[in-house]
Design a protein that fits this description.
Two copies of one chain form a homodimer. Chain A has helices at 24-30, 40-57, 71-82, 96-107, 125-135, 158-165, 213-220, 248-255, 267-283, 285-305, 332-343, 370-386, 395-406, and strands at 13-14, 63-67, 88-93, 111-116, 139-143, 145-146, 151-152, 168-172, 191-193, 207-211, 321-325, 345-346, 358-362. By secondary structure, chain A is α/β, with parallel strands linked by helices. Chain A starts with 12 loop residues before the first strand and ends with a helix. Chains A, B: Residues 42-347 form the Aminotransferase class V domain.
């Protein structure tokens, strides 16, 4: 074969629902040299990363670490380690990723119960409590921000409901963490997972996870040290987790003081995850959330001023992404391709019932910035006009700039 | 908390059993900017990576791709997708990683049968065939290079045996691929997996995998498109794979022409995997294997000339790693720490029965080089002497240099 050249990506401004353009310092971190997995520098970097993510999650959970895989790997690790076959799991579904949690729980042979609301809406706490009372699940699995619909499910009252009914509370915060408030301890989470490729501003491939002491107890009750490194006295529960890679008990032993070998930690992705959190905490967690709120408000004002109809319940939209209906007569995918070809700007469509019906425009991580928002709106205006939509001249950019101008310095 | 600084690893020459120092160009590749997951550049980079790994594996298998996780994720994806609960799996165990394959198959609820040989030995084809005849497995799962013992199990006759008995043949080549011959098609493999962090010279976190058409057929027979993106006519087998993340059917649909969203491909790790293969094929697959052979022979001559006893059946040693018994009276871990502290050189110990009994010294990927070998031997000589071992002055370096000098240019 003729060898391809070194990787040399085109210039792209990633304004879709994620992955988004990484922070430059995160990209630089990944080119740092490797060290051995038990090198004192490595174990220190792992411990630092754990501490950084405790701040990101707003938790005191000792069991705060990374799963070596994409955000979906984090979801599967949480579910397969917390759910025994036959356990009842309740999944409120308000978009594609609710279906995903249900699907992963089904594969773990849970008895899965779902409640659904229309795409573009969220659940009230009482709807969730009613379902808990009816289903009596072991685990509530609830997406925080479902990128497929852009909705942000309020979680702040759910932990207390779960505690009242003795239910473990797990949330997938992949799309929302870092760009919207998340308070693992204050909200009573037992488990939460995320990925780097959204508001954390890194590449896909590492999944931050945090587990409450109660969740760790469940995981520990199913412990099994693998043959080949097992020593006398090591546990071997018959009720073991049906996965080795995602057995959080073994992963905790690898990250914990025993440093018992499991996988070989993905060093470069650890460097990336560490830098994502370092950037976020360096700027300040609240400041980063406020920056996402500002950029999101500006983008919202911009698309509305372009005459686009925003999809879903705007009061419950995530700060970092907005969905707009594709105007009648505009060929959605062709227009997206033009935006990419002519301006190097990527926006997304959605899944299932929303595929081809909405565009999703993100303002996340590094790209939650004024120049990224205004550039995207200017390009979008041009493309919309080219495909025959009636758009006010300069309206989107002006409206967004006004939002930025009105923000406290 | 006080924020730690940017990641800044100490200088390390990683001469253990892996991870090893990555090729500089692989580190550089990871700092390339991200693109969207359906960007034409991204799908092209994925297709190029598939073609590159077909060459690395020596296969025409269309189903050649990456699993987003460490080498262990690749193993689990292969086993959980190919093995139905209750299926018989035969695992010949000649070190720690044989135990791992058995463990992963047990978790997949297979009926696992093992045969064992002493650590430091390999199996004859006839021993494997006898066990196949007795056990009648659906799948033979066999490690090629088990780093725990340094042994390289010959595979060239095993595929024909499996074909004769209608058994699927899977091998884990994590520790061996790129530094030792591997011929997926010529040897009749149905599935093979690896990682980047050994002879391929990259970081842990991406697992190359290849599947024969027969293996794909098994995987496809268990297909299930996930709810949320399922369309009319899509399959939903009741006999589904008990994992979503590792369901090779869905992963094939993501890498294949349908590009059906599964995980979000770990872009930076894809860049790394692509570059690992590009470096290998740019130098030439046979040339890289020969370089590993030469560096391995030199290291072997060097440690023998230092008076160290080599562990195991040297005739069946992998080219890229040697295990030596820790001399009587030398504190193994203290001496290893001195090598790291004083010289920045890492070597490894081993697992289970060999922990604290042997050191493992690797010559892999970028570090399968003369200067890396000679530097390691010089430092090892110094450390051995400091801890009271009787070592001939300069003997190790001289013996290794002679091997390099005698090599054809």
């Amino acid at each position: 074969m003729t060898l391809p050249g070194p990787i040399d990506p085109p210039a792209r401004l990633l304004m879709g629902p994620g992955p988004i353009s990484a922070y430059p310092s995160v990209l630089r971190a990944m080119s740092a040299p490797l060290v051995g997995q038990y090198d004192p520098f490595m174990t220190q970097a792992m411990a630092e990363t754990q501490q950084l993510y405790r701040e990101v999650w707003a938790t005191g959970n000792d069991a705060t670490l990374l799963i070596d895989g994409t955000s979906r790997a984090g979801i599967e690790a949480a579910i397969v380690s917390l759910v025994r076959p036959g356990d009842r799991v309740l999944v409120p579904v308000f978009g594609r990723f609710g279906h995903l949690l249900a699907e992963i729980a089904e594969r773990a042979l849970a008895e899965v119960h779902t409640i659904e609301t229309a795409w573009g809406q969220v659940f009230t706490p009482s709807a969730i409590e009613e379902a808990i009372v009816r289903v009596k699940p072991t685990l509530l699995a609830l997406v925080q921000g479902d990128t497929s619909t852009t909705m942000n499910q309020p979680l702040d009252e759910i932990g207390a409901i779960c505690a009242r009914h003795g239910v473990l509370f797990y949330s997938d915060a992949t799309a929302s963490l870092g760009g919207n408030p998340f308070e693992a301890d204050a909200w009573g989470l037992d488990a939460a997972t995320a990925g780097l490729q959204k508001c954390l501003g890194g590449p896909s491939g590492s999944a931050p996870i945090t587990l409450s002491p109660r969740a760790v107890e469940v995981v520990r009750s199913r412990s099994r040290v693998e043959a080949g490194i097992r020593e006398e006295g090591d546990a071997a529960a018959s009720d073991f987790v049906r996965s080795n890679y995602f057995d959080l008990g073994m992963i905790l032993d690898y990250w914990g003081p025993r440093r018992l070998n499991h996988h070989t930690e993905a060093t470069s992705m650890l460097y990336a995850a560490r830098e994502c959190a370092r950037v976020l905490l360096g700027e300040g967690r609240d400041a980063v959330i406020a920056r996402h709120r500002l950029a999101g408000d500006a983008m919202l004002a911009g698309v509305e001023a372009l005459g686009l109809t925003v999809f879903g319940d705007v009061a419950h939209k995530m700060a970092n992404v907005v969905a707009v209906e594709i105007p009648e007569g505009v060929p959605g995918d062709v227009a997206r391709a033009a935006l990419l070809d002519d301006f190097g700007i990527e926006i997304g469509t959605s899944f299932g019932p929303l595929h081809g019906r909405v565009w999703r425009i993100g303002t996340m991580g590094y790209n939650a910035r004024k120049d990224a928002v205004l550039t995207t709106l200017a390009a979008l205006e041009s493309v919309l006009r080219r495909f025959g939509a009636a758009v006010p001249v300069g309206g989107g950019v002006e409206a967004a700039r006004d939002v930025f101008a009105g923000a406290p310095a």
